[in-house]
Amino acid sequence: MSDTLTVNASGLSCPQPVMETKKILDKTPSGRVAVLVDTATSRNNVARFAENKGWKAVAEEREGGYRVILEK
Amino acid sequence: MDKILTSRQGPLVAGGFLGAIAALLVFWGNPGNMGFCVACFTRDIAGALGLHRAGIVQYLRPEIPGFILGSFVSALAFREYAPRSGSSPIVRFFLGICAMFGALVFLGCPWRAYLRLAGGDWNALYGIGGLAVGALIGIAFLWNGFSLGAAERNPKAAGLVMPFLALVLLAFVFLRPLFGPEGTGPVFFSKEGPGSQHAPLLISLGAGLIVGWLAQRSRFCTVGALRDLFMMGDGYLFRGLVSFVVAAFAVNYALGQFHPGFEKQPVAHTQELWNFLGMVLSGLAFTLAGGCPGRQLIMAGEGDGDAASFTVGMLTGAALAHNFSAASSGAGVGAYGIPVTIIGIVVCLLVGFGCRTARA
What we know:
The structure holds two protein chains of two kinds.
Chain A: E1 4-8, H1 16-27, E2 32-37, H2 40-52, E3 56-62, E4 65-71
Parallel strand pairs in A: 1-2
Antiparallel strand pairs in A: 2-4, 3-4
Chain B: H1 2-5, H2 10-27, H3 38-48, H4 63-77, E1 84-85, H5 89-106, H6 110-118, H7 124-143, E2 152-153, H8 161-175, H9 201-218, H10 222-232, H11 236-254, H12 272-289, H13 293-302, H14 305-323, H15 337-354
Antiparallel strand pairs in B: 1-2
Helix pairs in contact in B: 2-9, 2-11, 3-14, 4-8, 4-9, 4-13, 5-12, 5-14, 5-15, 6-7, 6-11, 7-10, 7-12, 10-11, 12-15, 13-14
């Protein structure tokens, strides 16, 4: 887990969770990224955006929201 | 059905149903091309509660509490009820006021802008153009670091306020209490004009509940549709917008409700510049707040206290717009509609420039 980049987008309004995800994916050609969000809408938006960019997305529940794990 | 609504085709499917329901509500009695306009109906509710004195636009539209309750029940059923707030609620309140000022200069929220188009009201094209420009200005702020800050989770009970208020509004529309001075009020109902035109109460409520459920599951959002398309090239929500217009047009056409032209359109005026600028203001305010007015109501039902602040701002803005003669009518822009639009745009620009949160 030590090489996982984590982005905390929890509590941000649309479209900021996706923007935060875009910022880090633009700098990360491949690897493992965890995006923390607080709503199901943000979870789905982040996963859809990453999948459109060729990343594999898996969401898991966490205290106060979701952790979306992105891998490529 | 839920698999479809939450799939990539969810907004497309939901948009089709929403467009058809909106056109049917007009057939059943709602004002022309209004379907379930969030701005117009929030304005009617403000009037019904006596917050403004425009006698022709007073009715406790059951669709609005229906949206909130439909979303609330859906969010509970699918474990998405998540009370939260703390993302600059007072700023969102003022954005709600500004959004309503712009919408009442144009005469409709983004949903109605598209419903007007689907009914043949070509004045809506100026409004939709303004909406797109407002969204683009909002996007420029977002790319430059605009943020109202992060919300935090609240106690479960905190999210019950808006569903409770929705139930109170429904109780008022069913019971019609009359204990004010001279035997009128505290709830007022128009005897003529748009406020007197409405579908049967249970149909309106049922439609509101269904729309609330469909929109909660699919995340249907007319401002998000433009924003995501322009910002990310993501047409996910935009497909919902297209199906919304196509379905409303098809039902309008089939029912003889499609009347193309600029003149004599229902609850509309032909002042192009102010149709455009009114929606520039609205589009900017909605983009800064993170979603269209319908979406704000849906999020309020899910427990989002910041969206609730925005919707209460819209209610306040509706009352202020009429009390300050800023709301338009079929005759044209109100006496103070132009200065209020300009002030609203300036306020939103100040919010856009001023609200930034340093993030890594």
